[in-house]
Amino acid sequence: MRPPRVLSIAGSDSGGGAGIQADIKTITMLGGYAMTAICALTAQDTTRVHAVLPVDPAMVAAQIDACLNDLGVDAVKIGMLGSPQIATVVADRLECLSVPIVFDPVMISTSGAALADAATIAAFERLMALATLTTPNVPELAALGGDAAMQGRGIAYIAKGGDADGPEVIDRLVIPGQSERVWTAPRIETRHTHGTGCTMSSAIATLLASGASLEEAVEDAREFVRAALLAAPGFGAGHGPLGHQAVR
């Protein structure tokens, strides 16, 4: 059988822990075929983001068109976008698709660097409306208006609890018209958490492309992230990368 084709639209992480690099590793380890549209270049390591260079929106559009028109696509993951113009271009290209779309509304890196300005965050509205699932962490959910605002949008989202305090991680899947699904698991105490959000969203996209239901995709993606956290190689002086390569 041919692998499901997953297009990651996101930023590049030179350190390899997050962004496009984490997406390619995740998609590949889960049996998918990874394609990319790079929205921004970052000079980044485990300690901080040293520099960011957004890609020209026309080039982002050209990358997406090249993948869609020749290779085809079975699911899309959206991550760091870099500018409101890029967010608009991405929405223009995706609004006619009928495949699962997972939107990770990236705003701040694990090391604390801002990766989206207010105008870019405002442009997220259209992408959230297009997405099959939006995957905010704790600060991202707050910036998007909290649970009340998300439910008012009438969209499916998972409120990730990895950034919250406490001995357990609580993730909540909210789907309009359905009962909330909640997962809890003991917190894995580690500083090597760089790229967890990118890994989670690209895993969900790959699993949806493989035919899983939304609930099944989230459940299996959580297990993939936890296994990758436990397999982290310990690289770097800051928030190190996950061990994607060790997850079977």
Give structural notes.
One of its GO terms (biological process) is thiamine biosynthetic process. It holds the Pfam family Phos_pyr_kin. This is hydroxymethylpyrimidine kinase. Its EC number is 2.7.1.49. There is one protein chain. The chain has 248 residues and is an alpha/beta fold. The chain has a single domain (5-246), classed as Ribokinase (UDP-N-acetylmuramoyl-L-alanine:D-glutamate ligase). 38% of the residues lie in helices and 21% in strands. The protein has helices at residues 19-29, 57-71, 84-94, 118-130, 138-143, 146-153, 196-209, 214-230; strands at 5-13, 33-44, 49-54, 75-78, 101-103, 133-134, 157-159, 168-174, 181-186. The strands form 2 sheets. It has a 6-stranded mixed beta sheet, sandwiched between helices. The protein has a 3-stranded antiparallel beta sheet with strand order 7-8-9, with helices on both faces.
Core attributes:
248 residues; alpha/beta; globular
Number of domains: 1
Overall shape: it is globular
Task: Give a short account of the largest sheet.
Answer: 6 strands, mixed
**Which percent band covers the strand fraction?**
15-25%
Instruction: Give the beta-strand count.
Output: 9
Helix content: 25-40%
Tell me the CATH topology: UDP-N-acetylmuramoyl-L-alanine:D-glutamate ligase
CATH first level: which class? Alpha Beta
User: Number of helical runs?
Assistant: 8
Detail the poorly predicted runs.
none
Please state the CA-atom Rg, rounded to the nearest Å: 16 Å
Question: What's the order of the H and E elements?
Answer: EHEEHEHEHEHHEEEHH
**Structural class by secondary-structure content:** alpha/beta
InterPro entries: HMP/HMP-P_kinase_dom (IPR004399), PM/HMP-P_kinase-1 (IPR013749), Ribokinase-like (IPR029056)
GO biological process, one term: thiamine biosynthetic process
Domain Pyridoxamine kinase/Phosphomethylpyrimidine kinase: 13-242
GO molecular function: hydroxymethylpyrimidine kinase activity; phosphomethylpyrimidine kinase activity
